[in-house]
């Protein structure tokens, strides 16, 4: 199996000189130092990532990765698997939440179909067919993916990052669509964080408390079957999903090409966790859009030492939380680039 080069090759680091210059710029602006909080930090980080004194997130590339999950056989979702394919058509038709948000942002939106049980019509606009199989294996009883399949899913993500680079994107957002994927994301996170299923399994699309308990039992079975190997690729192949692998591949591919990333919710963060465990340098390319209402997200964010921009009780996926946070990054850039300095505005900087 051939993994994308970004899985193993050393990733670049953001530029330290640009970071230092951006900090000096922030401290020269007409405000008490640090008073714009995380907006300052985001602008400074973007300068380092983009090798620019004038950061921008005007050109946003959103790739939504869709795939089905064999673990749905265990009755772990409030919705039928057919919804994954139906939603791909809805993304293409412009009626999904991420379709609306992408239009509002003037962002490029592509949907990568990694394999669904339901039928997806051919030639839907903006949908890329990268079908691997109708679904992953049921993780409660078998590995999610073969080694060839996990490599194909990682590569599909890397290709999306290559398209973002080709389009000159300032920022990459990876979204997810896959009925059952809060189960697989929880399994991945439990394995990497040595957590019990009860700590990370949540309601997903809207399970009742008894059904959440059943879902935790299913994750427990998957973890027992998987065993002790906590190597990122082994965990991903055994417990993940096509879209979680593609998200990990897209994040690594973006960093390898010098593109910052805005991470979405629980599933996207599970992809980030896998990728950061594989390549810790990736962390310095990540911004975090929001804290999802999915129970386990807080713990995964903590493990990534991430303080997200928003906490709106969203739990949709699709990249919708990250897309909603782009406006804040745009504000951060506008403030960094356009505020007056103490010297220019004739305001005392309090240093005498
Ligand atoms: O991103 C999140 O935090 C999030 C939290 C809960 C649900 N979702 C979305 O809902 C679907 C998975 O939910 P479920 O209950 O089928 O596992 C999948 O399409 C996700 O995009 C997404
Ligand atoms: C309708 C619907 C839309 C979604 N978008 C992401 N996950 C989803 C799950 C459902 C059920």
From TrEMBL:
> Glycosyltransferase: present as a keyword of the record?
yes
Function text:
Catalyzes the synthesis of alpha-ribazole-5'-phosphate from nicotinate mononucleotide (NAMN) and 5,6-dimethylbenzimidazole (DMB).
* Protein name (database record): Nicotinate-nucleotide--dimethylbenzimidazole phosphoribosyltransferase
Pathways per UniProt:
Nucleoside biosynthesis; alpha-ribazole biosynthesis; alpha-ribazole from 5,6-dimethylbenzimidazole: step 1/2
Reaction(s) this enzyme catalyzes, per UniProt: 5,6-dimethylbenzimidazole + nicotinate beta-D-ribonucleotide = alpha-ribazole 5'-phosphate + nicotinate + H(+)
Entry EC number(s): 2.4.2.21
* Chain ranges passing through the membrane: none
Q: Name one GO molecular function term.
A: nicotinate-nucleotide-dimethylbenzimidazole phosphoribosyltransferase activity
Record keywords, A-Z: Cobalamin biosynthesis, Glycosyltransferase, Transferase
* Family recorded in the similarity comment: Belongs to the CobT family.
Species of origin reads Marinobacter halodurans
| Pfam families hit by this protein | DBI_PRT
